[in-house]
Write a structure and sequence with these properties.
The strands form 7 sheets. A 7-stranded mixed sheet has the order 17-18-16-15-21-22-23. Helix content is about 35%, strand content about 25%. Helix 10 crosses helix 15. It is an alpha+beta fold. A hairpin with a 5-residue loop joins strand 2 (about 15-20) and strand 3. It has a domain at about 5-245: ATPase, nucleotide binding domain (Nucleotidyltransferase, domain 5, 2-Layer Sandwich). The chain has 17 helices and 23 strands. The structure holds adenosine-5'-diphosphate (ADP). Adenosine-5'-diphosphate (ADP) binds next to helix 11 and helix 12.
Length: about 500
């Protein structure tokens, strides 16, 4: 009987299920969107029950589409939107309220209060995270503070906290396992990434009782089995990683200095730093890349807020193009950006500038400039912002890197990838599989159950689509010079 791996990709807007075979080839994909709730300015909520229902539906559909039986699933791997916080009642299995999504800013004031009380360095030293509303810890506190009935229940162990991975494992095993993996734990502000323990001091600061927290497992280990009534078979659940970490694993960035950059709405860049938790001088995050057989591999993470969003702006606000991919053809009407620099600070500037008040600009305009120049400058801007982050990471980590692996919607743009290779003077590698996040979860699950024997076996499966080698080009240096001089004025 041919066996497969099911990857559950629990994203921010949709629940997806993807079935891979032993060659790492996608056999079937099913996907269901779920509702985004915006009850107040800055608040973003999900209904955890809807997440579970859409996920369950997607799993059944993917199995049917692949034309296989549930018994043919060797294992399940889970990857998930990170930091989103659910608290549920252990007895009824029902959430006590809406899930608070990673994008939600309602705890920004609480973070400011803790920062004013000089607590940010304590959190950073232990968790590698900046004290921000993004992470789970303050969201847990908010839920407990805002419903007086919950605190006593939490203290006596009647409630469970989890990120979406924990919640899905709980549902898949009908409440037998309350776990999270080390990568997801590392995004809570409660987990000490050096000792690999929930941290008493941080729990006290956020008033989170130990009884609420899941057991932390490796990213690749047999956790338990799905309840037989649910999918019609007891399938091992054996891999979990947060989405960015799963993509790093799916890209096989497994040695120190290897980097992946995801080009979507924003850019998410992660560099493997091996067994060293790097302390950043640029407010980048230190995080867990994965934990295998109890051994932790660390990573440094930085993001660019506006990347593909800049192309959306040119499309929707300026109507310069009809579809995002048209930007490439337009940019190719010119051989350079005609001295333009596009400052893509449409919602402030993140690392390494950290200027929330910065606004966008188009600089260096002269009479000869065309739409093609603007299109090209926009693509350069995405590559230049990524370059800023990658160079800062390299400096922080003290680890040079040789190649950059890429994924995400905008990585299909060949010109953008070539500009990235030139501007970084680095080889850029785009894989054949665009589902690198799901593939990473599948790899983690399959390694634990012997579906794949070793990481070396995975390396033999990984196939590139295209390599972009840096090309000698007089313009490159000028583009960088202009960028550096003009960014300094922002
Ligand atoms: P997300 O996961 O953040 O929704 P995707 O990975 O689906 O993002 O990528 C979509 C983003 O990439 C959009 O912002 C879009 O403008 C941009 N994009 C898509 N295709 C291209 C392309 N060929 N060239 C440049 N940008 C693109």
């Amino acid at each position: 009987m041919k066996k497969y791996i099911l990857a559950i990709d629990a994203g921010t807007t949709s629940s997806r299920a993807i079935i891979f075979d032993q060659k790492g080839t996608t056999q079937a994909i099913a996907q269901h969107e779920f509702t985004q709730h915006f009850p107040q300015k800055g608040w973003v909520e999900h209904d955890a029950s809807e997440i579970w229902e859409t996920q369950h539906k997607a799993i059944n559909e993917a199995i049917a589409k692949a034309g296989i039986t549930p018994q043919q699933l060797h294992a399940i791997g889970i990857t998930n939107q990170r930091e989103t916080t659910v608290i549920w009642d252990r007895e009824s299995g029902q959430p006590v309220g809406p899930a608070i999504v990673w994008q939600d800013r309602r705890t920004a004031n609480l973070c400011e209060t803790l920062t004013a009380a000089q607590k940010a360095p304590v959190f950073y030293a232990k968790t590698g995270l900046v004290l921000d509303a993004y992470f789970s810890g303050t969201k847990i506190k908010w839920i407990l503070d805002n419903n007086p009935a919950l605190k006593p229940l939490a203290k006596v162990g009647k409630l469970a906290f989890g990120t979406i991975d924990s919640w899905l494992v709980w549902k898949l095993t009908q409440g037998k396992h309350h776990v999270t993996d080390a990568t997801n734990a590392s995004r809570t502000l409660l987990f000490n990434i050096h000792t690999q323990q929930w941290d008493k001091e941080l729990m006290d600061l956020l008033e989170v009782p130990a009884q609420l927290l899941p057991q932390v497992v490796d990213s690749s280990e047999l956790i338990g089995h799905t309840d037989s009534e649910l999918l019609g078979a007891e399938i091992p659940i054996s891999g979990i990683a947060g989405d960015q970490q799963a993509a790093l694993f799916g890209q096989l960035c497994l040695s120190p200095g290897s980097v992946k950059n995801t080009y979507g709405t924003g850019c998410f860049c992660i560099m493997n730093t091996g067994d060293t938790p790097v302390v950043s001088k640029n407010k980048m995050l230190t995080t867990i890349a994965y934990r295998l057989n109890g051994k932790v591999t660390y990573a440094i993470e930085g993001s660019v807020f506006v990347a593909g969003a800049l192309i959306q702006w040119l499309r929707d606000q300026l109507q310069m193009i009809e579809k995002a991919p048209d930007i490439e053809e337009l940019a190719l009407t010119e051989k350079d950006s005609g001295g333009l620099t596009f400052i893509p600070a449409l919602s402030g500037l993140g690392a390494p500038y950290w200027n929330p008040h910065a606004t966008g600009a188009l600089m260096g305009i002269s009479r000869g400039n065309s739409k093609g120049h603007i299109a090209r400058a926009a693509l350069e801007a995405i590559a230049l912002r990524s370059r800023d982050i990658i160079l800062a990471m390299q400096k922080d980590a003290g680890t040079p890197f040789e190649t950059l692996k890429v994924d995400g919607g905008a990585s299909t743009n060949n010109l953008l990838m070539q500009l990235q290779a030139d501007l970084l003077n680095t080889t850029v590698i785009r894989p054949q599989t665009t589902e690198t996040t799901a593939l990473g979860a599948a790899f983690l699950a399959g390694l634990a159950t012997g579906y794949w024997a070793s990481i070396d076996e995975l390396k033999a499966l990984w196939q590139e689509d295209r390599i972009f080698s840096p090309q000698e080009n007089e313009q490159t240096e000028q583009v960088i010079k202009n960028w550096e001089a003009r960014m300094a004025k922002i």
